[in-house]
Amino acid sequence: MLLKEIAHSRTGDKGNISVISVIAYKDEDYDLIKEKVTEEKLKDYFKDIVHGKITRYEMPTISALNFVLEDALGGGVTRSLAIDMHGKTLGSALLEMEID
After folding, report:
1. If 0-12 CB within 10 Å is exposed, 13-18 middle and 19+ buried, where does residue 20 land?
2. Which residues does the UniProt record annotate as the domain AtuA-like ferredoxin-fold (predicted)?
3. Where are the alpha helices (DSSP H) in 50-98?
4. Which of 5, 8, 56, 69 is the most interior residue, by most CB within 10 Å?
5. Which residue blocks in 59-98 are alpha helix, DSSP H?
6. What number of CA atoms fall less than 13 Å from residue 13's CA on the CB side?
7. Residues with Cβ within 8 Å of residue 72, at least 6 apart in sequence
């Protein structure tokens, strides 16, 4: 299944840092998301885009994970020559991740 089938995303960016929250639609899916959407998985998934550290924060009371992706936006939204290099683009791409 695709992550977007059980979760949605909120994103933000500041400079060269992207923040992606993955929020389960149903509380009962949170443990699966927590197990499958790890820092290591994101490092591999975004290996050509994110060149810095990825940190995951767990927010069980709202069934969400928050990821901080450093060196992720080609120098920052206003400096990058990439088309639409914003956090919202990375959030949409993450929801296309296949999970078991």
Report:
1. buried
2. 1-99
3. 87-95
4. 69
5. 87-95
6. 21
7. 16, 17, 18, 46, 49, 50, 51, 52, 87, 90
Interval 39-46 mean pLDDT: 95
DSSP assignment of 1-45: -BGGGTEEEEEEEETTEEEEEEEESSGGGHHHHHHHS-HHHHHHH
Q: Is residue 33 within 8 Å of 3, Cβ to Cβ?
A: yes
pTM of the model: 0.85
Domains recognised in the chain with CATH numbers: 3-95 (3.30.1360)
Tell me which of 94 and 55 has the higher pLDDT.
Answer: 55
Q: Residue 34 is encoded by which pair of tokens?
A: 């927590």
Q: And the tokens for 40?
A: 């290591």
Rg from Cα positions in the chain? 13
